[in-house]
Specification:
Two copies of one chain form a homodimer.
Chain A: E1 6-7, H1 17-25, H2 33-50, E2 55-60, H3 63-74, E3 80-85, H4 88-99, E4 103-108, H5 117-123, E5 130-134, E6 136-137, E7 142-143, H6 146-156, E8 161-165, H7 177-180, E9 184-188, E10 199-204, H8 206-212, H9 224-232, H10 242-258, H11 263-287, E11 301-305, H12 312-323, E12 325-326, E13 328-329, E14 338-342, H13 349-366, H14 375-396
Parallel strand pairs in A: 1-12, 3-4, 3-5, 5-8, 8-9
Antiparallel strand pairs in A: 2-10, 6-7, 9-10, 11-14, 13-14
């Protein structure tokens, strides 16, 4: 059968055609009025997309680059930091903080789990300079309760910064950056923004900017004070990835369209879309007797346990071979145990139903389980139908 | 929910990304060595795609343009012609032949039906200069038996040409152009070739070329003898739609890839894909208690009757509003009575399952029928699973 290459990975995610076109067409030099206008428009729109009044910077790097920028701009060697870690990306925070010489305290919970607020509160007594956490831990599909965590950190006081890796979280889960007092939040282009990798961004609070002056960690490319000064003049410190800015501009317009002209509402619609795709997928997986891996599952992706004694790599391989659909295996210690289906960004009803239909064939092929065709799909359809009915009732009320 | 604009219309059909990219990138002037090389490669590949040794011409026009070329190059005013008509496109043959002054004899069967070979044989006694027919009648979703019809026409003799509109047929149904003795076969770019409208093509037999010298109908843009002479020199008579040629080149490469490097096998794979999508869709529709409209359903599209007393326009509208999925209403007298879902070209498993899932919600919304979610999908999955099992057994045998 004909195969379309279909990404269901938690980044890179399917590309928005309008972003592809914009990217392909863009040729302007970066030190021109044309690029400056695009750059300024994009930075202003990014504030609305993130939902913050804080300064937003967009850098030519992957998400990890801006994670490093957070560490190198907000901590100095020997600074105490608290890393909340529940998976590969939590571990990345620890690795980064250690690379920059911080004294790292880890609050570590098993993969698939999230943190106890009481434990976080207890650990804050060491008065760390910053707390590092993920909004969603993509390696396990867990959603951390950033609202509650932020409340605990803010109650502790202004000396401790809250840094949130929301690379897969932004655009897939509701986040009130300013209201909750998040000092540094990070996103990437290849996620809910529906464009290729290559840009990563952050929103930085006034508290974080002030804290930066005390920092003595070495930094140059990722020196955010320099980027901030350049941005104020409508430019970047170093050569920007111009065509990706064009794609970003187009993606933001698309999201604005999802909000009937309002970008903030568009972002909420995008989040609701991911949440609905995720809920449909969870219902589908459960209907097939599969176990969900995450104790608090994210809207960004669904991590599903392979049936007992089956290597999840076989599921991933069968998806690829039979449907050219790319789902993700587990990472690190979870490799071979789970598989992950993403809902980040550019997915619709047909994608979601299609991948669940494909999952039924995949399981029929790689397990001995007797699969009732249509059962995962039906469970997802019921979620969809109920959600749409509720939405209509809301509109009519 | 996020909506992707999804065409399920029997042309235009979903675009192949590689064709879009090639089209967007192409800039060469048409009287250059670069374009000449592309043009000659495409014409040679088109012979393999169509499966013919006859001359192939590709013109800048819609399919109707080449239908006109067939009439104006192969008939003169007052010539007797036999038109086999079973829908809107059969009627187009009659309209064209009348416009060029032919004496039109129609063998007309009701919409949804196909022709009796005995009746065709009987009508041939009038010795028409040409017989005009569709391979698939897109207005009704009917597949005409071209192999059998060609046999009847060829038995009648060499004086009668067989002209087949295979605009939706090529790439969706098996056709042996030379083996069956089809004198003039027509296709269009916006169908199984997975590219936008703007090009139409034909393969012309030696018998048809000879017959053209007797023709006195007025023609200029569509004078195929002129195009043939130009093509022999590696160019077109008038300005070609250059970027569409680039798209066509990319589409042919994709189809070659479907045949593991063999274009003829790629075309067979494309046909089998459409046939499988069609079989899945028919099984899905039947599982929902819906009636198929065509007595002999095509691989190109499935025409489904709206439930009793329901305007099919409501189904079309609900598909559009809830899923941004564009399915076709009936045409002419069938408007409001049927809806049509296409399988022409760039469709895969996920598309087919997705649209059937959507159909279940659409029916739940616009009818009083109680819909068992997943039932259409399950029926389609069973077809898919059985076909794949058979294919594997064939490979292993």
């Amino acid at each position: 059968m004909l195969h379309k290459n279909r990404l269901f990975t938690p980044g890179p995610t399917p590309l928005l055609p309008a972003a592809q076109t914009a990217m392909a067409a863009f040729t302007a030099h970066h030190r021109t009025a044309d690029f400056k206008a695009l750059f300024q428009r994009v930075l202003a729109d990014m504030k609305e997309f993130i939902g913050t009044k804080n300064d937003v910077l967009v850098l030519a790097c992957s998400g990890t680059g801006v994670m490093e920028a957070a560490v190198s701009n907000l901590t100095s060697p020997h600074d105490k930091v608290l890393v909340l870690t529940a998976g590969k990306f939590g571990e990345r925070w620890s690795g980064l903080c250690k690379a920059f010489g911080c004294q790292v305290e880890e609050l570590k919970v098993p993969y698939g789990e999230t943190f106890s607020l009481d434990e976080i509160r207890a650990r804050l007594s060491s008065n760390p300079r910053a707390v590092f956490v993920q909004a969603t831990e993509s390696s396990t599909g867990v959603r951390h309760d950033i609202e509650a965590i932020a409340k605990v950190v803010r109650q502790h006081g202004d000396e401790t910064l809250l840094v949130v890796d929301a690379i897969t979280g932004l655009g897939t889960t509701h986040l009130d950056v300013d209201g909750w007092g998040i000092d540094f939040i990070i996103g990437g282009s290849q996620k809910a923004l529906m464009m290729p990798p290559g840009l990563a961004y952050c929103a930085v609070s006034e508290r974080a900017w002030k804290s930066m002056d005390k920092t003595i960690s070495p930094r140059y490319y990722f020196d955010l004070r320099k980027e901030r000064k350049s941005a104020a003049k409508g430019e970047t410190a170093y050569t920007p990835a111009t065509s990706l800015f064009a794609a970003l501009g187009a993606a933001l317009e698309f999201i604005r369209g999802m909000g009937a002209g309002n970008l903030a509402q568009g972002r909420e619609a995008l989040v609701n879309n991911a949440e609905l795709c995720a809920e449909m997928t969870r219902a589908g997986a459960k209907a097939l007797g599969l176990k969900l891996y995450a104790s608090a599952p994210a809207g960004a992706l669904t991590a599903i346990c392979a049936p007992e004694a089956l290597d999840s790599g076989k599921i991933v391989k069968e998806f690829r071979e039979s449907f050219d659909a790319v789902v993700a295996n587990g990472q690190g210690e979870m490799k071979g145990k789970i598989f992950r289906i993403a809902h980040i960004g550019y997915y619709d009803y047909l994608d979601t139903i299609g991948i669940l239909g494909a999952l039924e064939h995949v399981l029929a092929r790689v397990t001995d389980k007797s699969i009732e065709y249509g059962s995962a799909v039906r469970a997802a359809q019921q979620v969809y139908a109920r959600t749409m009915t509720e939405k209509r009732q809301l509109v009519n009320a």
